[in-house]
Design brief:
Length: about 400
Amino acid sequence: MNLALFIARRYFFSRKKKNFINIISNISMIGVCVGTMALVIVLSVFNGLEDLFRSLYGTFNSQIQVKAAEGKFFELTPELLSSINSVEGVESVAEVIEDNVVLTYREAQSIVKMRGVSNNFLKQNGLDSVIVAGKLVLQEDGVDYAIMGSGVQFMLSVSLKDDLYPLQIWYPNNTKKTIDLNSPNAIFRKPIRPGAVFAIEQQYDNNYIFVPLSFARDLVQAGNNRTSLEIKTASGIDIRKVQNALKTKLGNQYTVQNRDEQHANLLRAIQFEKLFVYITFSFILAIASFNIFFSLTMLALDKQKDVAVLSAMGASAGFIKRLFITEGAIIAFTGAATGIVLGFVICWLQQTFGFVSMGMQTSVVDAYPVQMRIEDFARVGLTIIVIVFVASYFPAVKASKNIDAKL
């Protein structure tokens, strides 16, 4: 058995001559426990938020998106479509025309983002899982339908059962270089029936409507131009591999992005917040570990006779140093282990029962999302090891130097 560990463990469980040393040791353990628990919970919450945002934009964006490197539109030619479909792993390609339009219903109006999509877009994405009213259909029996966000429906007071008043979508006439605003040809307008309502998240619910691709093409006079192509890969295929193959085949004229790259700024912001929170809570743990410093200093004074006996029996200064570092490690790791267990239990309870609500109603999640990852537990453990070593080292060195001085 490691002698330093054996003696340190005896010191940890035995009562000290001065009771305040026990109090400081207990405060040290509680501080490390609370800090560790909070760090585990916060990191798990940020993981959950990251996964939540990925699921949110997964409803709107497919696995791979192709856009023009410059400008809003690009021409979709049979050669381009054939080139994309020839890449191994590409299962389907959906065509998209997206632009800002003015949406009116009776006397109300609002500026929204219109997404004209081909029918296979609905099969690629998970819109069917977020429909809260109506029927998920873009065209039926020769009639065009719009799928709108719940916020858009609320702002315009749209009734899905209203057969008398359709939605009106307005778009400026971009085919002429000069436009007379008073001319009836200055703005294109097309009616469309409201078909369904989706509810995901406020940013999408308040700003988006989906319409058939042919409807959007005629409204914006796009012809063969598209704003993006949404690609679904075959099951079990490495998306990165397909993405790299598309980049090689399409060249620099097009931007090929996966889902994370399409929302890189948002994910980067979440990761930066997670990093800063980790640093902040690490500082809190470091402050809590100061109690370990004071506890070991007092313990060294309390155990001077014991240390003198050990020294007389041949214990070196290095052994005394290891003894007190081990004592500090026992104090810290007892608190850290308790904190990790409590953090795990609290995260599991939130995952299972969702006790803490986000304070808003969505069709995706009502409670704060939590996702535990093994790398976060490893990161917390490594942080504690570094902090404990720094907090324990200087009292241990001081105690060993005092012994050397007496000898």
